[in-house]
Amino acid sequence: MTDHAVSTTEATGRGKTAVASQIAVLASLAALGTLATNIFLPSLPNMAAALNVSSAAVTSAITVFLAVFALGQLVVGPISDRYGRRWPVLAGFAVFLAGSIWCASTSNLTGLLIGRVIQAAGACSTSVLSRAIARDLFSGAALARAMALIMIAMAAAPGFSPLLGGAFDHVWGWRSEFVFVSLFAAAAAIAYGAILGETHHSVRIPLDPFSIGRSYGDLLRDRRFVVPAAIVSLIMSGLFSLFSAAPRVLIEAMQFSPIQLGLFFAGTVLIVFAAGMLATRLAPRLGLDRSIQLGLAGRKSAGELS
Q1: Integer Cα distance of 163 and 289 in angstroms
Q2: Among 132, 153, 251, 286, which is least packed by CB within 10 angstroms?
Q3: Beta strand segments in the chain, E
Q4: Cα gap 173→97, rounded to integer Å
Q5: CA dist list (Å): 284 to 144, 187, 279
Q6: Which of 112-116, 250-254, 288-292 tops mean pLDDT?
Q7: Domain ranges of the chain
Q8: What secondary structure letter does DSSP report for 173?
Q9: What is the DSSP letter of 41?
């Protein structure tokens, strides 16, 4: 092999490593919000006992987080288009870190809810900008692969983080879960600064509230956006309803341990992943309509059995 061929191979290898590192950082940004919510699900009964409230009251920590998380993204996107990605992402990490430390040290429900609001205000920045940064860095097939891997990370975090949280709760108690997400955020922030940094080098869009409002209004009137968004919203609503109710039912009523609850969520995600892989194989053979009908029939049968 010639020196030129060797250098070309090494350059290709370095390029693939750099891309893999970039996607890994983007995946950590995208997964931060779901990690922060689902990691403490096995600990909800223990948290309720420590804070002297009911388990139902503690689940409000999920509700307030999701509300701030959703609304914050509407603000972060336009800010990043005007001022770039770097400082909104780093500010998001800093705010999230502060909120996590607040949650870890709180002694009452009010303090927990305040900490969760602060957490969500930071996590919404990293989550929404992970996709924007992916579009800054990649295009075409490379962008599709990057977005697919980011979505896998976002899907895996809700399933496997309760198992991790159950282990932390068993060994060190529920406050250690917030310490862990603090360390995770700090490591992700360092990796972001070292590997990615500023990626928005195109023309900056002026921060005009009226123009932004009109754009959101146009989206809400566009069926191509509203219908898929409504479907995804209903699916996510059902998913988080399950996440909120499962700890009380499985731990308090059925005497699951926190680790057993984590295994339940992890097993559920594995089944979902397997079903998704099966669907991609069945759709070309059976057609999209028949594949969807088969999935709905299976869901109906499972509901009748339960």
Answers
A1: 36
A2: 286
A3: none
A4: 19
A5: 20, 42, 9
A6: 112-116
A7: 18-212, 257-306
A8: -
A9: G
